[in-house]
Design goal:
The complex is a heterodimer of chains A (about 110) and B (about 110). Chain A is an all-beta fold. Chain A has no helices and eleven strands. In chain B, a hairpin with a 5-residue loop joins strand 4 (about 30-35) and strand 5. The chains are: A mainly beta (about 110), B mainly beta (about 110). The interface of A and B includes residues 100, 104 and 106 of A.
Protein backbone atom coordinates (compact mmCIF):
# COMPACT_ATOMS: atom_id res chain seq x y z
CA UNK A 1 0.00 0.00 0.00
CA UNK A 2 2.02 2.90 -1.31
CA UNK A 3 0.73 6.14 0.13
CA UNK A 4 3.09 8.39 -1.81
CA UNK A 5 3.54 7.82 -5.52
CA UNK A 6 5.81 9.25 -8.15
CA UNK A 7 4.51 7.81 -11.38
CA UNK A 8 7.31 9.02 -13.61
CA UNK A 9 10.47 7.03 -12.95
CA UNK A 10 12.49 9.35 -15.18
CA UNK A 11 12.40 12.76 -16.84
CA UNK A 12 14.73 14.32 -19.39
CA UNK A 13 14.87 18.11 -19.84
CA UNK A 14 17.05 20.53 -21.78
CA UNK A 15 19.25 22.90 -19.85
CA UNK A 16 17.52 26.23 -19.25
CA UNK A 17 14.01 24.79 -19.55
CA UNK A 18 11.58 23.99 -16.77
CA UNK A 19 11.59 20.63 -14.98
CA UNK A 20 8.31 19.53 -13.44
CA UNK A 21 8.32 16.57 -11.10
CA UNK A 22 5.02 15.20 -9.84
CA UNK A 23 3.89 13.38 -6.73
CA UNK A 24 0.52 12.01 -5.62
CA UNK A 25 -0.53 10.88 -2.18
CA UNK A 26 -3.50 8.96 -0.83
CA UNK A 27 -3.51 9.67 2.91
CA UNK A 28 -5.54 12.80 3.65
CA UNK A 29 -3.90 13.01 7.10
CA UNK A 30 -0.59 14.04 5.56
CA UNK A 31 -0.02 17.71 6.21
CA UNK A 32 3.66 18.25 5.54
CA UNK A 33 5.47 17.50 2.32
CA UNK A 34 9.12 17.54 1.38
CA UNK A 35 11.33 17.07 -1.64
CA UNK A 36 14.72 15.45 -1.35
CA UNK A 37 17.42 15.24 -3.98
CA UNK A 38 19.80 12.31 -4.19
CA UNK A 39 23.03 11.86 -6.08
CA UNK A 40 24.48 8.35 -6.62
CA UNK A 41 26.32 6.94 -3.61
CA UNK A 42 25.13 9.80 -1.38
CA UNK A 43 22.29 10.22 1.08
CA UNK A 44 19.14 12.20 0.23
CA UNK A 45 19.53 15.96 0.69
CA UNK A 46 16.63 18.13 1.78
CA UNK A 47 15.53 20.52 -0.95
CA UNK A 48 12.26 22.24 -0.11
CA UNK A 49 9.10 21.63 1.89
CA UNK A 50 5.52 22.83 2.17
CA UNK A 51 2.86 22.56 4.81
CA UNK A 52 -0.76 21.91 3.98
CA UNK A 53 -1.79 25.43 4.97
CA UNK A 54 0.02 26.72 1.89
CA UNK A 55 -0.34 25.98 -1.78
CA UNK A 56 3.05 27.27 -2.90
CA UNK A 57 6.54 27.62 -1.51
CA UNK A 58 9.46 29.06 -3.39
CA UNK A 59 13.21 28.91 -2.83
CA UNK A 60 15.35 30.29 -5.60
CA UNK A 61 14.96 28.15 -8.70
CA UNK A 62 12.78 25.63 -6.83
CA UNK A 63 9.04 25.97 -6.30
CA UNK A 64 6.73 23.40 -4.77
CA UNK A 65 2.99 23.51 -5.46
CA UNK A 66 0.40 21.69 -3.39
CA UNK A 67 -3.13 20.86 -4.54
CA UNK A 68 -4.82 19.35 -1.48
CA UNK A 69 -8.10 18.58 -3.18
CA UNK A 70 -6.29 16.54 -5.82
CA UNK A 71 -3.77 15.17 -3.29
CA UNK A 72 -1.04 16.22 -5.66
CA UNK A 73 2.18 18.15 -5.37
CA UNK A 74 4.76 19.15 -7.88
CA UNK A 75 8.29 20.50 -7.89
CA UNK A 76 9.25 23.06 -10.51
CA UNK A 77 12.88 23.78 -11.28
CA UNK A 78 13.48 26.88 -13.40
CA UNK A 79 15.85 27.15 -15.14
CA UNK A 80 17.11 23.58 -15.07
CA UNK A 81 20.85 23.09 -14.87
CA UNK A 82 22.99 19.99 -15.57
CA UNK A 83 23.91 19.89 -11.87
CA UNK A 84 20.24 19.29 -11.09
CA UNK A 85 20.53 15.81 -12.59
CA UNK A 86 19.72 13.48 -9.71
CA UNK A 87 16.93 11.36 -8.26
CA UNK A 88 14.18 13.42 -6.63
CA UNK A 89 12.12 11.92 -3.84
CA UNK A 90 8.82 13.26 -2.65
CA UNK A 91 8.00 12.58 1.02
CA UNK A 92 5.01 13.17 3.25
CA UNK A 93 4.29 13.12 6.96
CA UNK A 94 1.74 13.97 9.59
CA UNK A 95 3.13 17.11 11.17
CA UNK A 96 4.60 17.33 14.64
CA UNK A 97 5.64 14.93 17.40
CA UNK A 98 8.56 12.64 17.95
CA UNK A 99 6.75 9.73 16.33
CA UNK A 100 6.72 11.48 12.98
CA UNK A 101 7.92 9.44 10.09
CA UNK A 102 8.42 10.30 6.46
CA UNK A 103 6.73 8.24 3.79
CA UNK A 104 8.72 8.41 0.58
CA UNK A 105 7.77 8.02 -3.03
CA UNK A 106 9.87 5.83 -5.31
CA UNK A 107 11.74 8.73 -6.86
CA UNK A 108 12.09 10.33 -10.29
CA UNK A 109 15.42 10.38 -12.06
CA UNK A 110 15.91 13.81 -13.63
CA UNK A 111 18.43 14.18 -16.43
CA UNK A 112 19.19 17.73 -17.55
CA UNK A 113 20.83 17.71 -20.96
CA UNK A 114 23.38 20.44 -21.72
CA UNK B 1 32.37 18.71 9.13
CA UNK B 2 29.98 15.83 8.45
CA UNK B 3 26.53 16.23 10.03
CA UNK B 4 25.36 12.61 9.85
CA UNK B 5 28.01 9.97 9.30
CA UNK B 6 27.81 6.22 8.85
CA UNK B 7 30.39 3.47 8.94
CA UNK B 8 31.16 1.46 7.00
CA UNK B 9 30.16 2.82 3.61
CA UNK B 10 30.35 -0.63 2.02
CA UNK B 11 29.87 -3.98 3.71
CA UNK B 12 30.17 -7.33 1.95
CA UNK B 13 29.51 -10.43 4.00
CA UNK B 14 28.36 -14.02 3.86
CA UNK B 15 24.88 -15.30 4.63
CA UNK B 16 24.44 -16.20 8.28
CA UNK B 17 26.95 -13.67 9.59
CA UNK B 18 26.20 -10.93 12.12
CA UNK B 19 27.14 -7.35 11.29
CA UNK B 20 26.72 -3.83 12.65
CA UNK B 21 26.40 -0.43 11.03
CA UNK B 22 27.20 2.66 13.05
CA UNK B 23 25.64 6.11 12.78
CA UNK B 24 26.62 9.36 14.45
CA UNK B 25 25.16 12.86 14.16
CA UNK B 26 26.76 16.08 15.39
CA UNK B 27 23.69 18.27 14.86
CA UNK B 28 22.44 18.03 18.43
CA UNK B 29 19.26 16.36 17.20
CA UNK B 30 16.99 14.34 19.46
CA UNK B 31 15.54 11.92 16.95
CA UNK B 32 17.37 9.44 14.75
CA UNK B 33 16.15 6.99 12.14
CA UNK B 34 17.16 3.98 10.10
CA UNK B 35 15.83 3.63 6.56
CA UNK B 36 16.30 0.83 4.06
CA UNK B 37 16.49 1.42 0.32
CA UNK B 38 15.83 -1.82 -1.49
CA UNK B 39 16.66 -2.91 -5.02
CA UNK B 40 13.62 -1.05 -6.33
CA UNK B 41 15.04 2.15 -4.83
CA UNK B 42 12.14 2.38 -2.38
CA UNK B 43 13.16 4.23 0.82
CA UNK B 44 11.32 2.81 3.81
CA UNK B 45 11.62 3.62 7.49
CA UNK B 46 12.72 0.83 9.81
CA UNK B 47 13.25 2.38 13.25
CA UNK B 48 13.27 5.70 15.05
CA UNK B 49 14.75 6.68 18.40
CA UNK B 50 14.04 9.81 20.37
CA UNK B 51 16.43 10.59 23.23
CA UNK B 52 17.62 6.98 23.24
CA UNK B 53 14.06 5.65 23.38
CA UNK B 54 12.61 3.50 20.59
CA UNK B 55 9.54 5.25 19.21
CA UNK B 56 9.02 3.74 15.78
CA UNK B 57 9.47 0.07 15.01
CA UNK B 58 8.12 -0.84 11.62
CA UNK B 59 7.53 -4.39 10.48
CA UNK B 60 11.15 -5.45 10.51
CA UNK B 61 12.47 -8.98 11.25
CA UNK B 62 13.72 -9.52 14.81
CA UNK B 63 17.17 -10.12 13.35
CA UNK B 64 17.46 -6.35 13.11
CA UNK B 65 18.16 -4.64 16.42
CA UNK B 66 18.87 -0.94 16.80
CA UNK B 67 20.88 0.36 19.73
CA UNK B 68 21.20 3.97 20.85
CA UNK B 69 23.97 4.40 23.43
CA UNK B 70 23.36 8.15 23.50
CA UNK B 71 21.43 10.84 21.62
CA UNK B 72 24.14 11.27 19.02
CA UNK B 73 24.48 7.60 18.06
CA UNK B 74 22.14 5.00 16.60
CA UNK B 75 23.65 1.70 15.55
CA UNK B 76 22.01 -1.12 13.65
CA UNK B 77 22.92 -4.72 14.39
CA UNK B 78 21.80 -7.46 12.03
CA UNK B 79 21.93 -11.13 13.01
CA UNK B 80 21.95 -14.14 10.70
CA UNK B 81 22.17 -12.10 7.52
CA UNK B 82 20.08 -13.24 4.57
CA UNK B 83 20.37 -12.53 0.84
CA UNK B 84 17.29 -10.30 1.03
CA UNK B 85 19.02 -8.01 3.50
CA UNK B 86 21.18 -6.69 0.68
CA UNK B 87 20.26 -3.02 0.37
CA UNK B 88 21.47 0.48 1.14
CA UNK B 89 20.81 1.49 4.74
CA UNK B 90 20.49 5.18 5.56
CA UNK B 91 20.66 6.81 8.93
CA UNK B 92 18.91 10.15 9.46
CA UNK B 93 18.34 12.63 12.25
CA UNK B 94 15.81 15.35 13.00
CA UNK B 95 15.74 18.15 15.54
CA UNK B 96 12.96 19.62 17.62
CA UNK B 97 12.26 22.50 15.28
CA UNK B 98 8.88 23.17 13.75
CA UNK B 99 9.73 21.33 10.56
CA UNK B 100 10.13 17.69 9.81
CA UNK B 101 13.37 18.08 7.94
CA UNK B 102 15.43 14.95 8.29
CA UNK B 103 19.12 14.98 7.49
CA UNK B 104 20.52 11.82 6.01
CA UNK B 105 23.84 10.09 6.21
CA UNK B 106 25.67 8.90 3.08
CA UNK B 107 24.34 5.35 3.33
CA UNK B 108 25.85 1.91 3.87
CA UNK B 109 25.65 -0.50 0.96
CA UNK B 110 25.26 -3.99 2.40
CA UNK B 111 25.83 -6.96 0.10
CA UNK B 112 25.08 -10.43 1.41
CA UNK B 113 26.61 -13.27 -0.61
Amino acid sequence: DQQVKQNSPSLSVQEGRISILNCDYTNSMFDYFLWYKKYPAEGPTFLISISSIKDKNEDGRFTVFLNKSAKHLSLHIVPSQPGDSAVYFCAASVYGGATNKLIFGTGTLLAVQP
Amino acid sequence: DTAVSQTPKYLVTQMGNDKSIKCEQNLGHDTMYWYKQDSKKFLKIMFSYNNKELIINETVPNRFSPKSPDKAHLNLHINSLELGDSAVYFCASRGRTSTDTQYFGPGTRLTVL
